[in-house]
Amino acid sequence: MFRRRAAARWEPAEAVYAEFLERVLPYAMGNPHPRFWGWVMGNGTVTGMLAEMLAAAMNPNVGGGDHSAIYVERQVIAWAREITGFPVDASGLLVSGGSMANLVGLAVARNVVAGPTCALWA
């Protein structure tokens, strides 16, 4: 595994990119163990990269206010409801990936069984 100390000075973007090409990109798929049978994931696409770049450039803080990112999320959730046949009043949430989705699912299940656990949810 590659390890190094934190940079003591600023490094040019070209140098960081060169190091990325050498030390990160060749190992993008992760686990090389012989008993590892693969990840379940899709391929990256140019369109997906563009979408991620645009989202990162916006960097919306949706903690309050009337931000466009909220409406994009609501539209995607509405499409998912329509495609899967969920009721019109079903809600949803977009998260960063499978681990976060599992954590949210466990929290929802816990709250359904235990009921409100703090005044915030009452």
Would you kindly provide a written description of the structure presented here, covering whatever features stand out?
With 122 residues, this protein is mostly helical. The protein has a domain at 92-122. Helices cover 48% and strands 0% of the residues. It has 4 helices and no strands. The longest helix has 17 residues, at 68-84.
In short:
With 122 residues, the protein is mainly α.
Overall, the morphology is extended
Describe the sheet with the most strands.
Answer: none
Instruction: Indicate the proportion of strand residues.
Output: under 5%
The span between the termini is 48 Å
Rounded radius of gyration (Å): 20 Å
Q: Pairing-aware structural class of the strands and helices? A: mainly alpha
Q: Helical content, roughly?
A: 40-55%
Provide the low-confidence segments as ranges: none
**Which sequence of SSEs, written as H and E, runs from N to C?**
HHHH
Q: What's the total number of strands?
A: 0
Tally of DSSP helical segments: 4
Descriptive tags:
48% helix, extended, mainly alpha, 4 helices, 122 residues
Question: Which secondary structure elements does this structure contain, and how are they paired or packed?
Answer:
Blueprint: H1 13-23, H2 46-58, H3 68-84, H4 98-114
